[in-house]
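COMPLEX REQUEST
Ligand: 2-acetamido-2-deoxy-beta-D-glucopyranose
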Amino acid sequence: MRIPFAALLLLAAAVATRGAAAQRGPGPAAAGPAASPGGGMGMAMGMGMGMGMGPGGGMMMGSGRGAMGKPEWMAVWQGLLSNHAQISRDWRPTAKGIESQTKSNDERLARLIQLHVAQMAGALDACAAQGGCQQPPLRGWDPLFVEVFRRANEIKLKVTNTTNATGDATGVAVQEEGATDAARALARAHAAVVSDFARRGHAAMMEAHEVPKA
Ligand SMILES: *[C@@H]1O[C@H](CO)[C@@H](O)[C@H](O)[C@H]1NC(C)=O
Ligand SMILES: *[C@@H]1O[C@H](CO)[C@@H](O)[C@H](O)[C@H]1NC(C)=O
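STATUS: Structure written out below.
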């Protein structure tokens, strides 16, 4: 299914605004549904399979519990997953981690890739600044991602937004380095999983992944 990008970006902006509003005051999102440890996974799966932009309230319920991430992140990655067939991605291991290139010939999609990577790099930075997150900001049900955010301070990302000769966005080039063997193994496992997301879209996104042996 293809989501029109204008609609998607508008939606992302609207959802982000709502999220910000919710953070300012003790609104319904702050009061929130009672946290049930098992709830995250069920909700994440429901969202993914139900596809898309369900009611904003539904998306917000997952935020703050490490289940699905912020609503504005969700809107972006739903767009990427739905259009995964138009995304190409390559990665290779390097001495200290990986390098990757993720691209689309569709410029709007290329911009969405850039936005997604900027969001995720920001989330990783935020965790690194606190010496790693014990509660991951997203995919709290997926051991590989839990470990990536737990070791965020051992992982360095260098992101370059790429453009073509006309100056149009084409995607991102990423260099990722791990300070430890464990972090380097995580970077490689994570790169492979991201490629799987790009190849298979929503179906891949529902799966949990093991932490690699360093
Ligand atoms: C650059 O990308 C845009 C959008 O994808 C495309 O229309 C244009 O032809 C590309 N230009 C070159 C020189 O590749
Ligand atoms: C890449 O583009 C995104 C989306 O426009 C932006 O948020 C981000 O800051 C850019 N990243 C870099 C490294 O310039």
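REMARKS: Confidence is low (pLDDT under 50) at residues 13-65. The longest strand covers residues 169-178.
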